[in-house]
Amino acid sequence: MKNKKIKRISGRWKFLGIVLFLYIVFFFVDQQLTMKAIELFEQTFMRVARILVVVFVVIFFVNLLVKPEGIKKHLGEDSGFRGWVYTMLGSIFISGPPYVMFPFLGELKKHGARLSLLVIFLNNRNVQPVFLPVMIFYFGTPFTIIISVYILIFSSINGFVIEKILK
Amino acid sequence: MKEALIKTLTTLRSSLPMILGVLLLISLLGSVFEGGYSKVFTGNYFLDPLLGALLGSISFGIPVTSYVAGGELLKEGVSLLAVTAFVLAWTTVGIAMLPIEAEVFGRKFAFLRNGLNFVSAILIAILTVTTLRILGFVV
Predict the structure, then answer these.
(1) Best mutation target, B23, B79, B84, to test chain A (most A CBs within 10 A)
(2) What is the mean pLDDT of residues B53-82?
(3) A129 versus A9: which is more confidently predicted?
């Protein structure tokens, strides 16, 4: 598991390295175009950096206040509507990349959590309050509200369908 | 406190190279294909979200990276339909994560969830843009 994690992190650095290599290649092909791209990157990065600072401060407070273990006991087979509410809240407030969430949710599955609730947990990652300011910044408030409602509806539908098929 | 700080720094460390890489790539592509995106993404109600979802499915990272990438692509002239499907598929369909997901939850679960999410990304993109159009928020 640890090896896989390291492999994935290095994959991200490899991606950055490949893009930087592309810049070097383009620099020798078309210097003017490359300088224009760097200028564009500089402007975009400055705009994005400010909002990212806010995002990571909020992520810190969410990590500090919300503990995944707290909702474990509410997601069992007989959890019903209560389980659904806890899953919705958990999936919205607990942030983390999939490779971090998979082991946590895998453990929930072993403890008897419903499949539909695991699907909801994995699918609601776009509705997390920590990331919503960035979505509003780029796409506006009406878009953010409408897409969030559809995501929540579809995550429940998909959870229900998967549970029905696999049961 | 220390645990929360470490968790946050781990997220920051793992997402930073991806964010920088995506921004650098978009800036480069934006300069190369200046105005060219609008020729590929014409606003077609099926093809645009399909292309967006395909692109999002092979990408991965925290949602915020997809918003930054999607927002910048939108500015470059990519349609809202494609960008919406791209953002959704980015976080809910993970081809790169499929082996781990299959290992933890089983192959059937992983393939079914990712397949359904791919279709859902297209449907939600169409529904979101249609709703925004009906309400008069986009032309």
Answers:
(1) B23
(2) 85
(3) A129
- Contact criterion met (CB below 8 Å) for B130 and A132: no
Q: What is the pLDDT of residue A86?
A: 82
Token pair of B45, please? 């109600």
Query: Residue B62: which of A97, A138, A166 has the nearest Cβ?
Result: A97
Two tokens, residue B16: 């930073």
Q: Where are the alpha helices (DSSP H) in chain B?
A: 2-32, 37-40, 47-57, 63-76, 80-92, 98-105, 107-134
Q: What is the pLDDT of residues A42-87, one digit of tens each?
A: 988 887 787 778 778 877 887 787 666 666 666 666 677 888 888 8
Torsion sign, CA atoms B121, A161, A151, B58: negative
Q: Do B67 and A118 touch (CB under 8 A)?
A: no
User: Given CB atoms, is B24 within the 8 Å cutoff of chain A?
Assistant: yes
Measured between CB atoms, does B35 come within 8 Å of chain A?
A: no
Of B8, B80, B120, the CB nearest to A56: B8
B-chain residues near A35 (CB < 8 A): none
Query: For the packed helices A132-139 and B63-76, what is the interaxial angle rounded to 10 degrees?
Result: 0
